[in-house]
Amino acid sequence: MLFSLITIFSTSFILALSGALMPGPVLTVTVSESTRRGVVAGPLMIFGHGLLELTLVVALLAGLAPFFTRDDVFVVVSLLGGIILLWMACSMIKELPTLQLHDVDNQEQTRSLVLAGILLSLSNPYWFIWWATIGIGYIMYAAKFGFLGIGAFFTGHILADLAWYSLISFGVAKGKRYFSDTFYRRLIFVCAAFLMIFSCYFFYSGLGKGYFILQAHQII
Questions:
Q1: What is the phi-psi region of residue 198: left when phi exceeds 0, alpha when psi lies from -120 to 50, beta otherwise?
Q2: What pLDDT sits at residue 58?
Q3: How many other C-beta atoms are found inside a 10 Å radius of the C-beta of residue 215?
Q4: What is d(CA 188, CA 94) in angstroms, rounded to the nearest whole number?
Q5: H-type helices in the chain, by residue range?
C-alpha cells in the first residue's frame, strides 16, 4: 500500500513537472507579475490554479469527464480564453510607457494573482482535455487506494507546479535588481506578445473546431 502511494505521488509529480516546464499563459504572467509582486507571485498563481484543479478533480470523479471533451465546450472555452488573454495582453501593452522598476514596489497592487491563476487555467481548452483524458486515467487508478490514493496523486501534481513556479518567481524577483527600465519594459512587452500568440492560437483552435462542427451538421 505504502509503495503504491509513493509510486502514485512520484509519477504524478514527474508528469506534472514535465507539463509545468512547457511555456504557457500561466508561466508568462508569472514572469511578468514576479517583477511587480516578488517571490509570492508564483505561489499565489499556483494557489488559484490548484483550487481550480481540485474542483475539477471532484467533477471528474463525479462523472463529468465526457462533458469536458465535448467539441462545443472546446469551442466556447477556446474563444473565451482567447478574449481573456487578448485583454490581458492589451492591458500590459497599455501600461508600457509608464512602467518604471523603481515604482513597482510602491505601486498599489489590486490585481488578484489567485484569481489570475484561476482565469488563466480556465482560458486554456487543452488544460480541460488533459484532465479529461490523461488526468482521469491517473485519478481512476489512484481511486483504487481510496482517498489516500487521490490525495497522493493530487499532492504530487500540485507540488510539481508549486516548486517550478516558485523557482521562476524567485529567479525573476531576485534578478530584477539588475534590470534597467528599458529591459523591464521589453520583458513585459515580450510577455504580452506571448499572451497575444496564445490568444490567436486559441481563437484559431476554437474557430477551426467550430467550422468542423458546422460542416458535420450540414453533411448530416
A1: alpha
A2: 92
A3: 10
A4: 11
A5: 2-20, 25-37, 41-61, 65-68, 71-95, 101-104, 113-122, 125-130, 136-142, 146-175, 181-219
What whole-number distance in Å separates Cα of residue 30 and Cα of residue 197?
17
Closest C-alpha among 31, 22, 45, 209 to residue 130:
22
3-class SS of residue 105: coil
Distance CA 4, CA 62 (A): 24
pLDDT greater than 80 at residue 62: yes
* CA triple 56-30-163, angle to 5 deg: 70
Portion of the chain with pLDDT greater than 70, in percent: 93
Phi, psi of 188 (to 5 degrees): -65, -40
Predicted local confidence at residue 120, as pLDDT: 92
Cell of 10: 512520484
Rg (CA), the chain: 19
pTM, entire model: 0.84
Q: Is the dihedral of CA 58, 63, 66, 67 positive or negative?
A: negative
Which residues lie closer than 8 Å to 137 by C-beta, 6 or more apart?
none
What whole-number distance in Å separates Cα of residue 129 and Cα of residue 136?
Answer: 10
Sign of CA dihedral 93, 95, 100, 105: negative
